[in-house]
Write a structure and sequence with these properties.
Layout lengths: L5 E5 L3 H12 L5 E6 L14 H4 L17 E4 L3 E5 L2 E4 L3 E3 L2 E4 L3 E3 L14 H10 L5 E5 L3 H12 L3 E6 L6 H4 L1 H5 L2 H6 L3 E4 L3 E5 L2 E4 L4 E3 L2 E4 L3 E3 L15 E3 L10 E3 L4 E5 L4 E3 L4 H15 L11 E6 L2 E7 L6 E5 L7 E7 L2 E8 L2 H13 L5 H5 L13
Parallel strand pairs: 1-2, 1-7, 2-3, 7-18, 9-10, 9-15, 10-11, 17-19
Antiparallel strand pairs: 4-5, 5-6, 8-16, 12-13, 13-14, 19-20, 21-22, 22-25, 23-24, 24-25
Helix pairs in contact: 1-8
The structure holds flavin-adenine dinucleotide.
């Protein structure tokens, strides 16, 4: 297949590897270089806060053998500068005809001179795991997805876990306070102390300094307050940024021949009529299909119904869609029970759903959201009626 002579991919995480796979799957025979800042070959991150942390898994490498992809892999090398048709790293310069930026995101750190752990890389995970011993007083800053998963694993390893969250509920930024609030009791059930409305000013030797001047002692502190797109190396390129690298629906940046995918990029969503960036594994998996097709001359648009999952406190939590423009929240089942769901409507259209232990509801909600038809809120609220049967015919 024709296409550019040389494709360079900056960032060797899931999204970067998937670009290479998709180029080859489409018959591209030109040169491909994959450049990654970490020394490890591409690996999966979701298990790092789950099975790796519990000790059930050590290695999450995505593909043991990159050989069949005929890709020039440069590990332990960071992209530092992008110019027209040249990518510079801390070790070399690469000419490109098409370039894909897939540099992901980096954890936000808090101020202070104390030791703070973060969880983004396999090295972070293995280092942290070795410190999670019975009786260790662990403070986790942030009750988001990663904070909750890590609290689960650490409590399971016998640590004394305290989670400090500045908002009034867990997961407030991700799913809103009403739904996030329903997860608060899960912490106490697992023996984890959750302190809400508790802001942390700094990480200090021996613990954390709280916003109101008090301090809290800890053997170990993990900061889990979110990530930022890893795009600082692109400063001065003139690439348009909008909460990460702004790409259009075809995943093209404002520089000709340059694409961006995964956690580092916000894409134009035709479905939601706005620029959106997600930190979802499923986006890093699938957006590269579209980038590869377009590098090879296509004009495919990427317009997913976003999907995310989390495993916390013995529960499978799944989220489909985007509730940013919703005007109604519907409960399906009792949130105090083991299994329940919440659904968001914009007008009479289902736009997002969160399910706890109800994968079938999630799948059916996905289909309704994809179809974009009208939904009966009363039927949707009734767990005896299948989610699919809440669709209003016609
Ligand atoms: C602990 C953890 C648990 C998660 N759990 C879930 C989950 O349960 N469900 C879910 O949907 N999602 C989950 N995610 C999110 C998911 O893993 C990410 O959305 C996904 O990894 C994004 O892939 P990516 O390739 O865009 O970025 P990344 O995986 O971050 O890969 C980017 C790579 O680029 C490298 N890089 C950065 N800068 C440069 C540079 N200048 N030059 C060269 N290389 C560079 C980085 O070192 C990194 O290896 C989790 C993430 C983490 C950290």
């Amino acid at each position: 297949m024709a296409g550019p002579a040389k494709v360079v991919v900056a960032g060797a995480g899931l999204a970067g590897l998937r670009v290479v796979e998709e180029l080859r799957a489409r018959g591209y025979g030109g040169a491909v270089t994959l450049i990654g800042a970490e020394e490890r070959p591409p690996y999966d991150r979701p298990p790092l806060s789950k099975k790796v942390m519990t000790g059930e898994l050590d290695d999450t490498e995505l593909r043991a053998d990159l050989g069949p992809l005929a890709v020039d892999v440069r590990l332990g090398e960071s992209a530092t500068e992008l110019r027209d048709h040249v990518l510079r790293t801390d070790a070399a310069e690469y000419e490109w005809d098409a370039l894909v930026v897939a540099t992901g995101a980096s954890p936000v750190r808090l101020p202070g001179s104390g030791t703070q752990h973060v969880l983004r890389t396999a090295d972070d995970a293995l280092a942290l795991r070795s410190l999670l011993k019975k009786g260790t007083a662990l403070v986790i800053v942030g009750a988001g997805w990663i904070g909750a998963e890590l609290a689960t694993a650490a409590a399971g390893r016998g640590c004394q876990v305290t989670v400090l969250e500045a908002a009034r509920t867990p997961l407030a930024a991700a799913v809103g306070p009403e739904v996030g609030g329903m997860t608060a009791p899960w912490y106490a059930e697992a023996g984890v102390e959750l302190r809400l409305g508790e802001s942390v000013a700094a990480i200090e030797p021996g613990g954390v300094a709280l916003g109101d001047g008090r301090s809290l002692a800890a053997d170990l502190v993990l900061t889990a307050v979110g990530v930022r797109p890893a795009v600082s190396w692109l400063a001065g390129t003139g690439l348009r940024m909008d909460n990460g690298i702004a790409v259009d629906a075809q995943l093209r940046t404002t520089m000709r021949g340059v694409y961006a995918v995964g956690d580092c990029a916000s894409f134009w969503s035709g479905r939601y009529q706005r620029q959106l960036r997600f930190e979802h594994w499923d986006i890093a998996l699938h957006a590269p299909e579209v980038a590869a097709a377009n590098i090879l001359g296509g004009s495919t648009e990427y317009d997913p119904v976003p999907y995310f999952w989390s495993e916390q406190f013995g529960r499978m939590v799944q989220y489909i869609g985007w509730h940013g423009a919703a005007d109604q929240l519907i409960w399906r089942g009792d949130p105090a029970a083991a299994k329940w769901a919440a659904a968001w409507l914009a007008g009479d259209r289902l736009v997002a759903a969160l399910t706890v232990g109800l994968p079938r509801d999630l799948i059916q909600a996905r289909r309704l959201i994809e179809a974009g038809g009208r939904t009966d809120p009363d039927k949707l609220a009734d767990p005896r009626i299948a989610v699919r049967d809440s669709a209003i015919p016609g």
